[in-house]
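Hey, can you fold this one?
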Amino acid sequence: MSDGEVLYLLADTKTGLPDAHVIRYTFAAIRPTGASSSTLRSKLRGIRIGLTLMRDLNIDIEQRISSARFLGLEELSRLRERCLTRSKGDGRISGQAASHYYSTFLDYFAFRVEEVLQYAPEHTHPTISEAFAAFEKRAKRLSPKASDGVSLNDRLGLRSQERDLLLRVIKPGDPGNPFQRPLQIRNHAIVLLSYALGLRSGEEFSLKRKDYDNRSNPATITIHRRPDDPDETRSDPALVKTFGRTLAIDEKLRTVLDDWLNERSDRGKYPNARRNPYIFVSRTGAPLSLRRGRQIYEQLRSRHPKLAGLMQHVLRHDANDRWTEDDERTSVDPDISRRERTYAFGWSDNSDMPDVYGKASIRRSTMKRLERIQREVVDKIDE
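Sure. Predicted structure:
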């Protein structure tokens, strides 16, 4: 939109045109809530799953509503299964995500019921309303649960040897560096910044030059929430999901970023970079896409099998692991550490995310304690 707002549309595969019913639902039910563009896109995925199933089963939603014949148990079971299945059919997604898709389609279905009631004969309203109430109860019973779908393992950070390997091979000129030489300075800055601060990809690739203050001591990076930014022209916008914050960076990271910004200002190497304010750009100078950011980690994994699980979000977990390890070394007050961590990673004061992240350090300390306890038991048996 002209003001920078991003709106996604759901197109009909037969006509190629946006679905008019979904557009009305978007503007009447989703947009007024102030939902972000990423939330809108996620909701449209749920609606797409449901509408695709309706087409596959030759179900006319409007006709079903008018005749008070809503989806039966078998049809709802099919919807539930579709929501749990990956879009390409290769495996399953988490129950939490499936529940979101399922409930979103049901919300859309309820919106269509309200539309039909506006022009349906008045004498049919009680029958439709009563049938819909029964339908909602059936649908609720079959909703995917968090325990359904794939069982996700706790995502962990890096082991110490993996950290050493990563920090070595991302240095420009290192024999193990997998990137083309012209991109090594940029990619060094991208990976090291994420490693040091535990940034999400949306946070990192939405950074603008004015967000980086290298004249202060220490230098700082400021994360801003810009939901409707006119500068954001990427088809997959880089969005900040956390709270804004200002973070200090040390001299080494400052030097790495300054080296990159000097490269970025070279018109011969990045010809159109001055046309946008973003720190990280592609070879053409356009804002770097999230997809290209993911490819950086794909290249590192391909070149170094020991980094098999590496991705940007793993570095966010690893930054939390290192925070926990620092707590253990310094014996800092737990309440103070928790407050500082929630600020550093952009969480709310009452967030439970500090308990979710940093699990690798907790797991390691737990294993050490179990080994010590078991060793004491064995020593007593041997006495």
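The first helix runs from residue 20 to 30. Let me know if you want another pass with a different chain boundary.
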